[in-house]
Amino acid sequence: MTYPDFVWFLLAEEDKHHPRSIEYWFRCMDLDGDGLLSMYELEYFYSEQLARMEEMGIEPISFEDCLCQCLDMVKPALTDKIRLSDMKQCRLCHIFFDTFFNLPKYLQHEQRDPFANLRVSYTKILCN
After folding, report:
1. Euclidean distance between CA atoms 125 and 127, whole angstroms
2. Rounded CA separation 81/78 (Å)
3. Which residues form the EF-hand domain (predicted)?
């Protein structure tokens, strides 16, 4: 990997909301280059995460459950394929990509307090 390649990788890793980052990670997952993420491609990447979770002694969720969560996040126009345009419209694309590429960040998302953001917002309102 060259230095410019590393810089692109690092930028894409740190800000998965940016359109260029979404394109970067989408291309990484699109193994056959057809512009669509198939269920096979998603399962291919998730199987690596499953192996890592098992090595760490973490009880993994099944691919079917993960797939259901991911499709609920992305809401793709096609039922069994995800397009780049679907990902660019998804506000949770960072969680989607972390699910398949970054196990520590994925686990943070899974273990976060769903009410934490509400408490911060409520505290700001009370302080004003």
Report:
1. 5
2. 5
3. 17-52
- Domain extent listing, the chain: 3-127
Indicate the length of the chain as a whole number.
128
DSSP string, 28-92: HH-TT-SSEEEHHHHHHHHHHHHHHHHHTT--PPPHHHHHHHHHHHH--SSSSEEEHHHHHH-TT
pLDDT digits (tens, 9 = 90+) for 70-115: 999 999 999 889 999 999 999 999 999 999 998 888 888 878 766 6
The neighbouring-strand residues paired with 36 are 83
Q: Is the pLDDT of residue 124 over 90?
A: no
Q: The pTM is what?
A: 0.80
CATH architecture of 3-127: Orthogonal Bundle (1.10)
